[in-house]
Write a structure and sequence with these properties.
Length: 610
């Protein structure tokens, strides 16, 4: 969950580290720190709070050197204190390191080391134990020490290490937690938890695999596998522009990313819809025989990605002949899974580094299932491990609350559904033509909604007193209600629950009174009349009703307190439109409350530990 950045080169080290840490703030953190070395001198500066607090401290205590590492910590072992913040030194201050992940056997290691080495630990963290263990293993060759180290650690870890005995080198080790390294080829190298930290300097990166070790220096990068054997690594060119990781004049990344959703839809469909036909053959080397051999379709994801999967499930079950199962990765991985050669398993993950999703994918692969990743990061661990990849093409998403990647995930999953249905022989040419037209019209309809943000800002301002919300939807609108409730609670810290509207009388109706607004997702479709009865039930209990409905629907005029109308679309495609006002409502609601919208408390963009 934490953020790591490291740099060797001619630039001012502290500036590069601070800029890198700022670009990783979306990962979630509660303290930050840097370590800089100048020959054999080591300077460690860390602070509780935001990167801005660390930067202010550095203005009073400036440090300089030739190479350094930085870290944003999200507390797991030990409280939120300056002492527990990273970086951490060993007891003799021989080396210093930063760590992302969790060491599961740190207590046993600490006990063993305490019986053999003198000194008192300064912190309560598992990371300081790793530093001490590495120091005990180091005998002049860091690669040998790291090879031995990873055989002794249990858990997940990404490490960046500086050593007094080996100046002008940063050593990296990855097991379970993501780590990327890069170079400009001009006497400077970088490491980071995620690409945005180094994107201002280079687009040429290497993704470390589990067990990989790297040595960074002004001369370049060297790599070893888990056995300490030298290896060659492929350099990947990241097709993201640096302007994608700044706010572009918007007050928050979340608002910028909401407003990019029309472009995300166009990117998602570019070269995939040709002559009103879905063609994924350039990315998926599947034959009709392959597809007809798969009887089961499993879709596995977490959080917002899970809701995108639930939305697509409704479309898939209509147009394909699969036995479909959609599950949360953290549950799926611990259940008895029936997956083999007749199973296509789709793993949906924005980052491609979600720990539970990766674990689920490895289980299916071991059982012989065909694994497909739907991810935004082409070089991620998930993307490298699966059989096939469909990239979102949404560009980097910095706001913790996912918006544009949700839109991209739905688009890609819908394209996949149409493609699978056709290869199964269940989609006619005319059906495919009509659906492609609907998809190609969506960017314009989304952008027409974005032009009316003032309505949603005003609407959000009317309900800032509320501390409980109920979201309702039926059929394909139910997952959108779930996503709307998630967005509101993620960034405003206000309690919001979502239910299938038909479940309202099975418990949630007890919550209703004038203090509990009910947000109803009710586009005009085959179930809208049934949803209307739920609106009447809410009004009978004097609960305020906020409706998201289809333009031209006058049935709600005398019942809903507030209505936001979205353009008309075939009912299968309504989620692309109804989710946008819910995103904007949550954004403006949280902004009225003065919340940290891009970096909500206790949350991280990518959950890389279980």
């Amino acid at each position: 969950m934490c953020g790591i950045v490291g740099y060797i080169g001619p630039r001012k080290i502290s500036d590069v580290l601070i800029r890198g840490l700022r670009s990783l703030e979306y990962r979630g953190y509660d303290s930050a720190g840097i370590a800089i070395m100048d020959k054999s001198e080591m300077y460690v500066v860390k602070e509780v709070g935001k990167v801005a607090d660390l930067e202010a401290l550095l203005e009073t205590r400036p440090v300089s050197g030739t190479f350094g590492i930085g870290h944003t910590r999200w507390a797991t072992h030990g409280g939120v204190t300056q002492v527990n913040a990273h970086p951490h030194e060993d007891l003799s201050s021989r080396l210093v390191l930063v760590h992302n992940g969790i060491i599961e056997n740190y207590r046993e290691i600490r006990k063993d080391l305490s019986s053999r080495r003198e000194g008192t630990y300064k912190s309560e963290t598992d990371t300081e134990v790793v530093a001490e263990l590495l120091s005990s293993l180091y005998r002049g060759n860091m690669v040998e020490a790291l090879t031995e180290l990873q055989g002794l650690l249990k858990g997940s870890f990404a490490l960046a290490i500086l050593s007094r005995d080996d100046p002008d080198r940063i050593y990296c080790l990855r097991q379970g937690s993501p780590l990327v390294v890069g170079t400009t080829g001009k006497g400077e190298t970088f490491c980071a938890s995620d690409v945005p930290a180094i994107l201002p300097y280079t687009q040429d990166v290497v993704y470390l695999d589990d067990g990989d070790m790297a040595e960074l220096s002004r001369e370049g990068m060297k790599f070893w596998n888990s056995r300490g054997e030298p290896i060659e690594k492929k350099i990947s060119h990241i097709d993201w522009d640096v302007t994608m990781v700044d706010k572009g004049g918007y007050p928050h990344f979340m608002l910028k990313e909401i407003n990019e959703q029309g472009a995300v839809l166009r990117n998602s469909m570019a070269k995939r819809i040709v002559d009103e036909r879905v063609d994924l053959s350039a990315e998926l080397p599947w034959t009709e025989e392959d597809v007809r051999g798969w009887k089961k379709l499993h879709i596995v994801a977490c959080g917002t990605s899970y809701y995108a999967a639930l939305t697509a499930e409704r479309f898939l079950e209509r147009i394909t002949g699969f036995d479909i199962r959609v599950d949360v990765a953290s549950e799926y991985r611990y259940r008895t899974i029936s997956a083999d050669r007749d199973t296509l398993a789709v793993f949906v993950s924005q980052s491609g580094e979600t720990a539970d999703t990766l674990a689920a994918e490895r289980i299916v692969k071991s059982l012989g299932g065909r694994c497909l990743a739907v991810t935004n990061v082409i070089g991620s661990t998930l993307a490298r491990e699966v059989d096939d990849i469909l990239q979102l093409k949404a560009g980097p998403e910095i706001g913790v609350a996912a918006t544009k990647t949700f839109m991209g995930q739905m688009a890609v999953l819908y394209l996949l559904a149409i493609y699978l249905g056709r290869l199964q022989g269940r989609v006619t040419r005319e059906q495919e033509r009509l659906w492609c037209r609907e998809l190609l019209a969506l960017p314009y309809k989304v952008e027409s909604i974005l032009q009316r943000q003032g309505e949603l800002q005003e609407m959000a301002g009317l309900y800032t007193h509320a501390r409980d919300f109920l979201f309702l939807g039926r059929g394909i609108s139910y997952p959108i209600a779930l996503e709307g409730a998630l967005k509101l609670k993620e960034i405003s810290y206000v309690h919001a629950e979502a239910y299938a509207a038909g479940e309202m009388k099975h418990g949630p109706i007890a919550l209703l009174d004038p203090r509990v607004p009910v947000v109803v997702v009710t586009p005009r479709d085959a179930l809208s009349e049934k949803t209307f009865s739920n609106i009447l039930e809410a009004k009978a209990r004097k609960a305020p009703v906020i409706a998201v409905a289809t333009e031209g629907d006058e049935s709600l005029d005398d019942t809903a307190d507030r209505i936001f109308f979205v353009p008309s679309a075939a009912e299968e495609f309504s989620p692309f439109l109804t989710v946008v006002p819910l995103q904007l409502f949550a954004y403006h609601f949280a902004r009225f409350l003065g919340c940290h919208i891009d970096q909500p408390r206790n949350l991280a963009k990518s959950v890389t530990v279980e």
